[in-house]
Every structure is written in structure tokens, then in C-alpha cells.
Amino acid sequence: DAGVIQSPRHEVTEMGQEVTLRCKPISGHNSLFWYRQTMMRGLELLIYFNNNVPIDDSGMPEDRFSAKMPNASFSTLKIQPSEPRDSAVYFCASSTGQYNEQFFGPGTRLTVL
Amino acid sequence: KQEVTQIPAALSVPEGENLVLNCSFTDSAIYNLQWFRQDPGKGLTSLLLIQSSQREQTSGRLNASLDKSSGRSTLYIAASQPGDSATYLCAVRPTGANNLFFGTGTRLTVIP
């Protein structure tokens, strides 16, 4: 299995631009999570999906952030408009089964200038 | 809200030493606890997962213990190697929730 796949790995953009991060979970996993990691706040959950349905989006910082999961093999996290304080590493993780061990992707390092 | 603390924040040891990393959490109502490793600029690699009903899990040179009542977990690394150098994160999954609450990590350096 290829593991959780994220793209792009690095993104540099200017303030005000739209940014879309992508994630492909491990095949057969029915839960998908988006996390953000910063030096100041560590790892924080933004949103998670179960069977393609958003279950908890209380971690989404503002209306500028939105996430979708149109099918079991693809999810996007969109920031519009982006701001410098959105600069962070964004991780996607997936899990399934009784023990719910989460497996993380390599992350997308976002820099907003 | 569950809060997870890891002490120390950084640790340096000479190669070959055994070491213990600590994790504490404020709410004992957990479903499981997971230890991860993160290398610089990389994602998280799952090391061990302990269910709330378990006391410990072992994988190779790693042993993780869980004392739910006291809100503590430890990760024991035997015969440390330079390749063990990384940041180690513990994460707690509360009962009834799917999400994980992460500690701030312990940055480990094993000196050759």
C-alpha cells in the first residue's frame, strides 16, 4: 500500500490567493483527518470525516477554511483567501477498523507570503 | 478538553543508553493512546498503539506502557541508536471521539 498521499508537498503563495491541498487516504480506510502543525500550537485537528461525511469541523479556524470529501479516495482542504498566519504544515491522516490507529501522510508545507 | 503534556521537551543521550519518554494526560476517559515518531521535515510514523484496556505494548526495542488511572504513559527505548534521533509525540484518543489530542513532543538526540 502506498500509504496516505498528499499533494503538493510544498506550496508557496501570496496573501489573498486561494490554496487547495489534496489527500488520498489509504484504500479501505473510512475515516479521514486534517491536522495543522505549527511551532506555537503543535498539532491541531481541523476536521475529520467518517464515510465521507464531515463529523467534527470545530477545529477549522475560520470561514476561509473549507474541506470536502467527494468520495472515499479523495479529500481537499481549501483556504480562500490565504493569509500569512496560515503558514504551517498540513497533515492528512486516515484510519479504519476497531483500533482506529491513524496513519499520516507526509504533509504539505504551506508558506503564505 | 483533554490536555497532553510531554516531558522533557528535549533529551540528549549517548548511543547505547536505555531511555524513557513521558506523556501525561488530564482526562482518564480515553479509548487509546498512540506514540508517533516525526523526523525533521517529515510526516508522523506510528510506533505503538495501546488500547485503554491494555497496560503495555512492545515492538522491537520499544515498549510503551499505559496507566490510565494516573493519566500517564511512558515510551521506553532500549539500547538507543543514532537512528532513533527524532521527535516523539504521544496522542490520546478520548472515549467516544475519533480525533487525537497531541502532546508537544520530546526531541531526542542520540549521540554516536
Model description:
The complex is a heterodimer of chains A (113) and B (112). Chain A is mainly β and 113 residues long. Helix content of chain A is 0%, strand content 55%. Chain A is globular, with a radius of gyration of 13 Å. Chain A starts with a strand and ends with a strand. The mean pLDDT of chain A is 92. Chain B has 112 residues and is mostly beta strands. Helices cover 0% and strands 59% of the residues of chain B. In chain B, strand 6 (56-59) and strand 7 form a beta hairpin. Chain B is globular, with a radius of gyration of 13 Å. The termini of chain B are far apart. In chain B, 37% of the residues are buried. The mean pLDDT of chain B is 94. Chains A and B meet through strand 5, strand 9 and strand 10 of A and strand 4, strand 5 and strand 9 of B.
Unreliable stretches covering 5 or more consecutive residues of chain A:
none
Binned, the helix content of chain B reads under 10%
Radius of gyration of chain B: 13 Å
Rounded radius of gyration of chain A (Å): 13 Å
String of helices and strands of chain B: EEEEEEEEEEE
Spell out the blueprint of helices and strands.
The complex is a heterodimer of chains A (113) and B (112).
Chain A: E1 5-7, E2 10-13, E3 19-24, E4 31-38, E5 42-50, E6 53-56, E7 65-71, E8 74-79, E9 88-95, E10 103-104, E11 108-112
Parallel strand pairs in A: 2-11
Antiparallel strand pairs in A: 1-3, 3-8, 4-5, 4-9, 5-6, 7-8, 9-10, 9-11
Chain B: E1 4-7, E2 10-14, E3 19-25, E4 30-38, E5 44-51, E6 56-59, E7 62-67, E8 72-77, E9 86-94, E10 101-102, E11 106-111
Parallel strand pairs in B: 2-11
Antiparallel strand pairs in B: 1-3, 3-8, 4-5, 4-9, 6-7, 7-8, 9-10, 9-11
Condensed summary:
Chain A has 113 residues and is an all-beta fold. Chain A is 0% helix and 55% strand.
Overview features:
A: 113 residues, mainly beta, seven-stranded mixed sheet, four-stranded antiparallel sheet, 11 strands, 0% helix, B: 112 residues, six-stranded mixed sheet, globular
